[in-house]
């Protein structure tokens, strides 16, 4: 399920700039604290800066076997993020920006946010999606989600 969105943002903006502007790092600082100390981290896009809250793959041509194994394992996790975005376009083809949306003539961001809300509802009503099954996590009930 998609749980956080920010935008709209011009397509030519760099991912790290949008991340900084979005306030997500401040949310991570508030919500990714581990009981007893330390922090949880999310695995981010290679364009994001490395931080206590965002980890990313090792870069360079001379990676050792452990670093290569880490990158391979984590690239599978990153792919799971794309599955949810694919579901949005699969269920609501009109939000496929390249084909349908007319920026400045339509409320593009509102259309996409509604499509995400409805996609999350479909995920719940179907008992999960590819991502929830891959991680062994059930979605909330529809009542919990819409509360």
Primary descriptors:
mainly alpha, two-stranded parallel sheet, 49% helix, 147 residues
Topology:
Blueprint: H1 15-22, H2 24-31, E1 42-43, E2 54-55, H3 65-91, H4 108-125, H5 130-135, H6 142-146
Parallel strand pairs: 1-2
Helix pairs in contact: 3-4
Tell me about this structure.
This protein has 147 residues and is mostly helical. It has 6 helices and 2 strands, in the order ααββαααα. The chain has helices at 15-22, 24-31, 65-91, 108-125, 130-135, 142-146; strands at 42-43, 54-55. The chain has a two-stranded parallel ribbon. It is globular. The mean pLDDT is 88.
On the 0 to 100 scale, the average pLDDT is 88
Q: Helical segment tally? A: 6
Percentage of residues in helical conformation? 40-55%
- The number of strands is 2
- What is the makeup of the main sheet? 2 strands, parallel
Order the strands across the largest sheet as they lie in space.
1-2
N→C terminal distance:
16 Å
- The rough form would be described as globular
Return the structural class. Answer: mainly alpha
Our Rg estimate from Cα atoms comes to 17 Å
Estimated share of beta-strand residues = under 5%
Low-confidence stretches at least 5 residues in length (pLDDT < 50)? none
| Strand/helix succession | HHEEHHHH
């Amino acid at each position: 399920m998609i749980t956080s969105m920010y935008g709209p943002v011009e397509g030519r903006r760099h991912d790290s700039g949008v991340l900084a502007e979005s306030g997500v790092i401040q949310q991570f600082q508030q919500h990714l604290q581990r009981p007893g100390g330390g922090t949880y981290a999310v695995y981010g896009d290679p364009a994001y800066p490395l931080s206590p809250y965002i980890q990313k793959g090792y870069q360079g041509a001379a990676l050792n076997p452990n670093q290569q194994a880490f990158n391979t394992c984590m690239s599978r996790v990153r792919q799971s993020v794309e599955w949810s975005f694919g579901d949005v376009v699969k269920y609501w083809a009109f939000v496929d920006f390249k084909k349908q949306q007319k920026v400045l003539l339509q409320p593009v961001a509102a259309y996409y946010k509604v499509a995400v809300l409805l996609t999350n509802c479909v995920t719940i009503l179907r008992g999960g999606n590819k991502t929830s099954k891959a991680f062994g996590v059930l979605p909330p009930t529809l009542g919990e989600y819409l509360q």
